[in-house]
Amino acid sequence: MSSSAKWLNKVKWDEYGLVPVIAQEVGTNDVLMFAWMNRDALEKTIASGEAVYWSRSRKKLWHKGEESGHTQKVHEVRLDCDEDVVLLKVEQVGQIACHTGRHSCFFQKFAGDANDGDWQTVEPVLKNPDTIYK
User: Fold this and answer.
1) Nearest to 98, CA basis, from 110, 85, 108, 83
2) How many distinct structural domains can be found in the chain?
3) What is the largest CA-CA distance in the chain?
């Protein structure tokens, strides 16, 4: 596959050559995580059928689940109306998407009001991350 493919050129990449990506679970529609992709990551995701992201901290491609085994099988790839956000509809293998051992990275919910509020953890740890990442 060529990185000059017409479908890749339609994506509005930011000044770093990245696009934000939301991973949403097929069936439940749970938002599992947010990440980034560059052209290579999106191309590899389409080619392999599994989510591949760009790690900004490690500055390299990251095949989701490469260490944990918690891969994401991609069922559908969508581009938003502004063509600057990608949505992956995925099957989360192993039920854990978050490096904290939870189903979703969005496990903290704001409760209260602007004067007297705080973030509360609303999803349990399914597996201790120390046993996932060695």
Assistant:
1) 108
2) 1
3) 53
CA–CA distance, 31 with 83 (Å, rounded to integer):
19
User: pTM (2 decimals)?
Assistant: 0.92
**Residue type at position 14:** D
Helix, strand or coil, per DSSP, at residue 122: coil
Domain assignment of residue 84, yes or no: yes
| Position 118 in a domain | no
The CATH number of the domain where 63 resides is what?
3.10.20.810
Which residues on adjacent β-strands are paired with residue 63? 52
Strand (E) or helix (H) holding 39: helix 39-48
Q: Which domain holds residue 91?
A: 6-97
Q: What is the pLDDT of residues 23-74, one digit of tens each?
A: 999 999 999 999 999 999 999 999 999 999 999 999 999 999 999 999 999 9
